[in-house]
Structure formats: C-alpha cells, structure tokens
Amino acid sequence: MNPTCPTSPFDTEAPLPSALVTVRPTRLGGPAREDEEWVAEEVPVALEYNGLSQAVMLATPLDLEDFALGFSLSEGLIATPADLLDIEIQTRPNGVALQLRVTARCELLLKERRRSMAGRTGCGLCGTDNLDQVFRPPAQPVPALPVDRSQLIPVLSRAMRELAEAQPLQQRSGGIHAAAWCGPDGAVRLVREDVGRHNALDKLIGALARAGTDTAAGFAAVTSRASFEMVQKAAGAGMPMLAAVSAPTHLAIRTAQACGLTLAGFVREGRATLYS
C-alpha cells in the first residue's frame, strides 16, 4: 500500500518553521545505520499585497522581511522601499503568508498587472502571463564597477572564499544557496541563504534596501549559475557586477551586455570568466 500523504505538514499553532530540521535517514553502501543529520526546510511562502494574493514561492523560512522587500523591488511590484508600508508574517496550515501593506498607487498597479506566480525554487518566470512582462530594463543606469580589471581575480577569489565560510545553513545541510554583498576589495559584508538561488538574491536585495546601502559601492556574489532572472534582479538593484560560481545562460549574457552589468561566471579560486 502507498503511504497516505498528510493534508499539510504545518501546524497553525506552531511558530514559524525553522530553517533547518533534523532527520534520521538510513545510510547504505556499507553497514546500514541511522545517523541524525540536518536538512534544509522548504515551505510555501505566499506574498499577499493589501489582501491580494500575488505570488507563492518555495523558500527557506528565514529573513522573510528581507525576502518580502527584495522580491517586491526586484519584480517591479513596488518602486521604492517606502512603498512597502508594513509586513505581517502569518503561519497557516499550508505554509507561511506574508501580508504586505503597500501604497494605494502600488495597489492600483498590482490590480492592473495581476500575476499568478505559483513558484518553485529556482524558477524565475513562473506565472508571467505575457512576453511584455519578461524584460524589465533597470530604472536607473547600472553604475560602473568599482574594481580595477587588473584586480578582479584576487577580489573575486576573496569574495567566493569568504562566502563559502559565511554559510552556516549550507555547512550544516549541504542544500542551501547563498548570495553575498561584497565590497570593492572582495570582503563579504552581508550574506543571505535560501533553498532557492533567486530567493537568496531577493533576500540580499531586501536587506540592502532596508539598510540603505549604496549598491554602487560593491557587487553581488552567488553560489549558483547566473540566469537571466538573476542578472535582471542584480541590475535592477543597481549592482555593478554579478559574480557566479557556475555558468551563465546566453540570455543572461545578452541581458547583462544590454544593461551594462559586469557578469562573471565560473568564479573559482584563482580564475573567472568575464561575459560582459
């Protein structure tokens, strides 16, 4: 008989789920044994603007205020942090709801451009219902990179090395992406983690916006490939460069070239590939 799937793994009486949980899997390939290990939590997170459901993403239930602001900005749902008036986090039987209160102007725009974005981790365009919604040029020109090209290799190497050391969730579970804000010397200043690479970058963008950080004064480094959506989010946030540990897509390269964003891929110790 097939096991019965529970209606919901969440409990409305419980607090917000933890970012990591422990399980006891059976290890094979040798004497079978059960050892306790940490795994990443993944929950449906609904973003509701003035009572209107706008998106459902799968995310790590951590730094959700940053996620709400970063997602709202990077998806063009609000224009400035001041448009987001309040955030309330609610635990529900089927996940977590972020109740966002936005200005009347933003609510009107949301009603005119209603999008159903039922999301999966790593999915950037879920629910976009026409091609005109895909490409959003940055509101402001992308600033110049504050790093001399001759210094890029040591700067990028430092950024990725420090990013690897600043991922507590990844170090314990092995299943988490991260996005870091780095200074022009490559020093990691801020890190956000999530099971979804887009979510990690959104959380970073939100945290930078909440702190009033000058995004022209550094760059973003991510532990994933560089997709079109990642490039668009970085450029829209006013970041001069996106550095990725893995490969870019062709659309990501073309988008970076079109908006003036420096895009580095395959950033590993001592090497990197510049695509724009």
Automatic annotation (TrEMBL):
Record's keyword terms, sorted: Cytoplasm, Molybdenum cofactor biosynthesis
InterPro entries, sorted: Cytidine_deaminase-like, FdhD
Catalytic site: 123
Binding site for Mo-bis(molybdopterin guanine dinucleotide): 266-271
The keyword Cytoplasm is annotated on this UniProt entry: yes
Main location, first listed in the record: cytoplasm
Pfam family, one: FdhD-NarQ
Subcellular location: Cytoplasm
Protein function: Required for formate dehydrogenase (FDH) activity. Acts as a sulfur carrier protein that transfers sulfur from IscS to the molybdenum cofactor prior to its insertion into FDH.
NCBIfam families associated with the record: fdhD_narQ
Family to which this protein belongs: Belongs to the FdhD family.
Protein name: Sulfur carrier protein FdhD
Gene name tied to this protein: fdhD
